[in-house]
Amino acid sequence: MSARVLRLDSNEGPPPPRALLAELAALEPELLRRYSDSSVLEAALADRIGVTPERVVVTAGADEALDRICRAYAGPDRSVLLPVPTFDMFERFAALAGAPIVRVTWSQNGFPVDDVLGRLDARTGVVVVVTPNNPTGAVASRQDVRRIAAGARNAVVLVDHVYVEYADEDLTPALLDLENVIVVRTMSKAWGLAGCRVGYALGSPGVIAAVRSAGAPYPVAAPSLALALAQLRAGEATLRDHVTRVREERAALRDLLVSRGADARASQANFVLADFAESAAFVRDGLRARGVLVRDFPGRAGLETSLRITLPGDPADFARLTAALESVLGQEAPAL
Known about the structure:
The chain is of the alpha/beta class. The chain folds into two domains: about 5-15 and about 235-330, Aspartate Aminotransferase, domain 1, CATH 3.90.1150; about 25-235, Type I PLP-dependent aspartate aminotransferase-like (Major domain) (Aspartate Aminotransferase, domain 2, 3-Layer(aba) Sandwich), CATH 3.40.640.10. It has helices spanning about 20-25, 30-35, 40-50, 60-75, 90-95, 115-120, 140-150, 170-175, 205-215, 220-235, 235-260, 280-290, 315-330, and strands at about 5-10, 55-60, 80-85, 100-105, 125-130, 155-160, 180-185, 200, 265, 270-275, 290-295, 305-310. A seven-stranded mixed beta sheet has the order 2-8-7-6-5-3-4, sandwiched between helices. Strands 1-11-12-10-9 form a five-stranded mixed beta sheet. β3 (about 80-85), α5 and β4 (about 100-105) form a beta-alpha-beta unit. α3 (about 40-50) runs parallel beside α10 (about 220-235), α4 (about 60-75) crosses α9 (about 205-215) and α12 (about 280-290) crosses α13 (about 315-330).
């Protein structure tokens, strides 16, 4: 195995500039002594998106926002309506809230908006829309979400938008007028700060107040807040360059996989999901032997023979990935 493992299994974004570390050295020790205050970052996020700060809550990564929303709006008598396959943590968050899960199949034919509307009832507490979806990379449209919001008057529509920077359209502006929609975003992906655990949610003041009250008062460490604020203020150009690079890699990787017989799905995230049929384990192990880690889904219905490959967003790393794939797929293996 190569001395440096190329981790393409967790969908992290680009490495932030080393200059960002200077922000830590410049922090006043008082920042470490006092409980953290997320209000400055919340105000900056609100200003960037064009809403008032009372419509933003910062959380310990997007995961904590999703967990809070399920705790606030779902429970034993309030179900979570979940198009699947999707982000697997929703199964856990629903379980922690004691909420039943109503699953709707999300096939490759588009977001199942009519099926979702058909499963709404008086007990629906949260309707989940992950767009771009993890692990498929598929998207829902603004019309899909608005139709669901209109039909789910007694529920909250949770739009998990953590990969939005890589997508063709940011749905956030088109949804902010809807009282029962909450949009969850993150600094962990395209902004490159997964280790800082900074996520945030946007919604109506009432929904945000409920989500804020569903968690601890100081969820994010002060140094993480400071780094996120610095990245937000200075990292826009880097983010744009990274997204452009990932989109180019995404198209090239999908073309390569399709040309070799894999069923690689169209994606609007920073990864590509491909079905390798009986060759999936062979491809996974072959890449690992070459120092490239990708995500597999043992036990996940419908995904057992699929691999999710994160786009590295770096020319040298992408060349290494494609060379490894060419080498593995060029060997004798079960037919795709």
